[in-house]
Structures are given as C-alpha cells and as structure tokens.
Amino acid sequence: MESIKSHSYEVHLKELAEAALKQHIAKNDYSQVFVLVDENTKKYCYPVFLKKMDSEVGCVLEIPSGEIHKNIATCTELWEQLSKNDGDRKSLLINLGGGVLTDLGGFVASTFKRGIDFINVPTTLLSMVDASIGGKTGVDLGALKNQIGVINQPQMVLIFPEFLQTLEIRQVKSGYAEMLKHGLIKDEEYWTALKDEKNFTDSKCIKKSISIKNEVVLQDPTEQGIRKILNFGHTLGHAIESYFLDNPNKITLLHGEAIAIGMILEGYLSHELKGLSKLSLQEIKEVFLKHFNRVILDEEDIVSIIELLKYDKKNSHGDVNFVLLQTIGKAVTDVKVPDNLLHKAFAYYKEQ
C-alpha cells in the first residue's frame, strides 16, 4: 500500500510505516526521543509501538486522556517535563494517541524551543483519518474548541490499523463520522459506498479518507479557501461539543457524535440556502441517525449552543461563516445563515 505524499511529509501505512520510522530515526541525529502517551495508549499501544522502533526512547511523557485535558495547563506541564529531561532543539517528540493527544503534542513540539520535530502516530480512527493529518495543532480555551494553536507539519504520520482493536465501538464510530464527512464534501461515490460499509476500518477505507483530506490540504495548507470545506458539520458540531463538555448536567459527547448532529443540522441549512435536494437531506439524516443515537436538546440547550457560535474560528468581521452542501460531494464555504433558520434546523433534527 503506497504512502500518501503531503507538502513536507508523508503518511505511511502498516509495514511501510514501521520501515519509515526506523529509517527516519536512523538518519537523523536526534539528541533524544520523547514519546507522548495517555494512560490508555501507554497500556495498550506503547508496548506494541516500542517493538517497531530500533532505537531507545529517552523519556515517556504521560498526560490524562480526554478533551478536558486539552489545554494550556497540560502544555505547561509538558514543556516543563521536556526541559527537566534535557530536551533541546534537536529532540524528537512522537505523539502516540488520539486526536486530543496529537493536537496537543503537535502544539507542544511546535512551541518548545521555538519548534522541535514531531511525528504523529494516531491510535484512534478519528485521529487516523482526520486529526493527525494536515498540520493543525492546538488546544482548547476553556470549553471552546481549538482556540489556541498553530499550523505546523509533522515529520511524518504513521498509521498502524492494529491499534483500532484496542478501542470501544463508540470511539471507532466517532472516526466513522469524519469519514462520512469526507464523502459528503468531496466524493459522492465514496459516501454511497461508505454509508453501508460495515468494515469501514479496513485499510483501504482509511487510506481513501486520508487521501481526500490530504488532497484538500495540499491545495490550501493554511485554510484561506478550499480547506474550509473540511469544516462541514463543525460550526454547529463544535458548539454542541463545547456546550456538552462544559455542562455538568450533560453527558460528554465524543467529537464524531457532535459532528454527526452538526452535519444533519448543516444539511438542513444546505437544503434551505444552497439547493441540496430534499432527498439528499433525508438520506444524510437517516444515515447519521442509523449510526448515532439522537441526542435530546431542549430550547435552553439550543439557545446556549447558538450563542457559542460567536467563538467559531471561521468567523470574520462579526459574521458566522458556514460550510454547506450544494449536492452530496460538492461543498461551498463562507455562507451566512439567518438566526431563524438555525432554530428550524434544530427542529428538523428533533423530528421523528
């Protein structure tokens, strides 16, 4: 299975990933190799990963798992640990974990000593097909998603699908939502095949999703134009995720679970504003509700979620900018949406 070439790095899968890791470390005179893990990847993934390396790990850095720890306080702890363990500008940080860990680890590496090399080794489906690809790094500001960060590319991304066997099904489905999004924004044929695909963790499906995202990122690495289409479902989805994260009376939603709701809502907006057919809208709703339980949202919840939209990263000059669909497979960016339609979108989601 061929590697996927991005701007300054490659995404390697399976045996090629192991070979690329060994070759990269052998040819670079790193003063020290650090590996960042959480308690789950330390237990289930690190022993397996260690066997794939021909070199010693200088220090293992551990953070608690979960979005709640994706913040500057955790970064400060890691910067201090890197410094105490003699990290310098010739050190390498390997991020072994899901999207929270690769986002945060990439940001820590990009800012320590004004930037050290890092490699992403995603261990969840979500991080394999989305979070670890494209160079976005960063942390949350309180409950607000990804408010602090930089775009900085890793040395490489290494995909070992065997790590998916360590996950509960809920985590796997979270990544499936992002794979479905790739079809909706760029490839109707992929969407059609994937929505009924039971073996969506197959290497071919993973590679296809990575390729779609990579193709978009290559055209627009700093998100000035077409890369914005990757945010379909994320304007409302991120607001929902933040609201549930910050509300002790609510269950915490995984990223993909929140984005699935966001894609139904923004599918409705696409129908109202950009001509997405009623048939396509209904198909989108049915597919996501088939794989993700409907979440109860009362009017107070909806008002609070809409209020959070003002913090979205895509906003400009006080306007909230949405990514919507003209058809399945074709997205448009920078769409302004009237408030009354937002409430109608939530009503559509709640309809049985």
TrEMBL record:
Pfam families documented for this protein: DHQ_synthase, DHQS_C
The protein's Enzyme Commission number: 4.2.3.4
GO biological process terms on file: aromatic amino acid family biosynthetic process; chorismate biosynthetic process
GO cellular component term of the entry, any: cytoplasm
Keywords: Cobalt, Lyase, Metal-binding, NAD, Nucleotide-binding, Zinc
Domain named 3-dehydroquinate synthase C-terminal: residues: 175-315
Domain 3-dehydroquinate synthase N-terminal residue range list: 61-173
Listed InterPro entries: Dehydroquinate_synthase, DHQ_synth_AroB, DHQ_synth_fam, DHQS/DOIS_N, DHQS_C
Required co-factors: Co(2+); NAD(+); Zn(2+)
Entry's Gene Ontology molecular function annotations: 3-dehydroquinate synthase activity; metal ion binding; nucleotide binding
Signal peptide: none
Enzyme class: lyase
PANTHER family hit by this protein: 3-DEHYDROQUINATE SYNTHASE
Function: Catalyzes the conversion of 3-deoxy-D-arabino-heptulosonate 7-phosphate (DAHP) to dehydroquinate (DHQ).
Name used for this protein in its record: 3-dehydroquinate synthase
Organism (species): Flagellimonas maritima
Source taxonomy: Bacteria, Pseudomonadati, Bacteroidota, Flavobacteriia, Flavobacteriales
Gene label: aroB
